[in-house]
Every structure is written in structure tokens, then in C-alpha cells.
Amino acid sequence: MKKENRDRILIFGSSGHTGVVIDIVERESKFDILGLIDPHRDPNEEFMGYKVIGNEEELQEIVLTHDVKGGIIAIGDNWLRKTVRDKILQNCPDFRFLACIHPSAQIGKDVAIGKGTVVMPGVSVNSGCVVHEHCILNTNSSLDHDSVMGDFSSLAPGATLGGNVGVGNFSVVSMGANVIHGKEIGEHSLIGAGSLVNKNVGDCSVWYGVPAKFVRRRQPGERYL
User: Fold this and answer.
1) For residue range 184-217, what is the model confidence (pLDDT) as tens digits?
2) CATH number for the segment(s) 7-91
3) N or C terminus: which one in the chain shows less Cβ crowding within 10 Å?
4) Is the peptide bond preceding residue 211 cis, with omega within 30 degrees of 0?
5) What's the pTM?
6) Where in the chain is the domain with CATH 3.40.50.20?
7) CB proximity list for 162: less than 8 A, separation 6 or greater
8) Boundaries of CATH 2.160.10.10 in the chain?
């Protein structure tokens, strides 16, 4: 039942990552989840107590019928999240994307968090940071002062970034990796789990190790999960 003064929203996806997003939305207590949008599940199939109510092609009708105020793409892969975003806007150009932030996250002064971004439990984002649209900051990751994350980029659990670090669009810093102060990671790049980045990283590349070294080139959209 819709609670008074609480808008209905949609969640896109139905994976383990989706479960974490659902938990954050419930704990924030700002919105009611109407249901899930997932073309890979049967209608009315349930996930964590919510039913699949359609796919992207049916989105416009769902939004109008149920007075939906927005939604969150709960998909872990950066490129796939962008692909779903594009499908949503093709079918519903005015759709409103929402950020969600777990109550345990620590968000500093003058931090900007873009629409569609998900901030998970135990995250620290210090003063002056800019986190752009549709990013993921996974559990216990840390972004120190004046750092910038580009659109559709992500930090895996336990990733730690120093101050004045830049993470390019679609790039990934994997579990337990560390990036020292002032370094830049280009677009579509991947930092391997447990690595230590002590130099700038270019676009479309994979780096791994302590200290991190170039391993190979990677293509935009290449799977990493």
C-alpha cells in the first residue's frame, strides 16, 4: 500500500545487486517501490517481496498508469547499466532517475552526487567530491576529498581512493584496490582487485598488481563481472 506523501518508484533489474539497492531504498524510507522492471523474468515473478511488472517497452504505460515518479537502475555492470538507461529513455524520454544513499554512508560537505548513483553501506565520500550520474560506490569503499567519478563508473567493495583522484567514465576500481593521491584513471579502464595504483592510468586498459602495471587493452563494453 502506498504510504501518504511517499512517491512510487521502479527498480530496474532483479539480481543480487538489485537486492542491495532495494534494501537501501527501504532504509532511506523516501519512496515506495512499485515493482521491478526486468525483461528476463516472467511477469509477476517475485524477488525480495516485489513483483516484476513489465519491461522497458511497457514503461511509458506503467509510469502513466501508476503515477511513477522515477526509478533506479540496479545493475552492477557499468556498460550494461548504460545500455538499460538508453532503452529507458527511448521508451520514456522524461523518465526521472534517482540516487539512493544508504543511511550508514558518510557524505562530506560540498559533495555532489549525480542522478542514478547508488551509495552502499559504510561508504565514505569526503568533502568536495563530485560523483557523476549512474555510478556505484560499493560497500566500505572510500573516496577522499576533491575526487571525481565519471558517469557509469564504479568502486568495488573496499576500494580506497586518495584525494584529488579522477575516475573516468565507465571505469572500475575493483575490490580492495588502492589509488594514491592525485592520480587519474582514464575511461573504460579496469583496476584489478588488491592493486595499488601509483601512476596515471590511460583509457581502455587493464592494470593489476602492487604496484599496478599495465596488463592489456580492453574494449568499451567488455564484461568484467
Assistant:
1) 999 999 999 999 999 999 999 999 999 999 999 9
2) 3.40.50.20
3) N
4) yes
5) 0.94
6) 7-91
7) 144, 147, 178, 179, 180, 181, 182, 183
8) 100-213
- CATH homologous superfamily of 100-213: Hexapeptide repeat proteins (2.160.10.10)
- pLDDT average, residue stretch 111-115: 98
Q: What is the pLDDT of residues 86-95, one digit of tens each?
A: 999 999 999 9
